[in-house]
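Sequence design from tokenized structure. All designs in this work follow the same two-part layout: the structure record, then the generated sequence. An example of the structure record is given first.
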């Protein structure tokens, strides 16, 4: 006998398709539907791939900055935003109860841009780019620049605290 599969319902985790084998039995299987957590994992894997593709000093520098964000803000959300033909991967973006910062690479610098950087205290003077804006502030890291890890972690935590309101 030929039975037709029917989608009986969709929920938070995806849709469930029921395919009757016999008139008295129903067999369920979950259909492959992307979920929020799968999308985040996919973006994290793609950021890993981006870092590997650089093939020069920018990959390890971005990787270290990314690690520092994750150490400073356990549970931080990581995703890729603003994809376009000239930047098909998009821009790595980190958030926790609101946006924290983005990580971008250029020929001579790796740039962390803090969304609300103008309102963050920067006692160590890490911000060295986009200083004229009313909202954002950025830190440009050149190839030989050292990272003040404790000061940078403090900025990440200050951004999270600002998001918490």
């Amino acid at each position: 006998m030929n039975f037709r599969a029917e989608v009986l319902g969709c929920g938070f985790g995806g849709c469930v398709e029921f395919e009757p084998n016999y008139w008295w039995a129903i067999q369920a299987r979950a259909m492959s539907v992307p979920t929020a957590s799968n999308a985040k994992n996919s973006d994290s894997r793609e950021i890993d791939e981006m870092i590997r593709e650089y093939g020069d000093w920018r990959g390890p520098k971005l990787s270290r900055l990314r690690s520092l964000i994750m150490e400073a803000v356990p549970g931080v959300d990581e995703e890729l935003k603003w994809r376009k033909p000239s930047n098909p991967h998009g821009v790595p973006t980190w958030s926790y109860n609101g946006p924290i910062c983005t990580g971008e690479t250029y020929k001579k610098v790796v740039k962390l841009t803090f969304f609300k950087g103008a309102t963050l205290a920067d006692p160590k003077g890490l911000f060295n780019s986009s200083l004229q804006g009313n909202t954002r502030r950025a830190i440009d890291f050149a190839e030989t620049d050292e990272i003040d890890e404790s000061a940078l972690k403090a900025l990440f935590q200050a951004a999270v605290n600002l998001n918490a309101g």
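Strands lie at 6-11, 14-22, 25-30, 77-81, 91-95, 99-105, 110-114, 137-141. We note this feature because it recurs in several other targets discussed in the main text.
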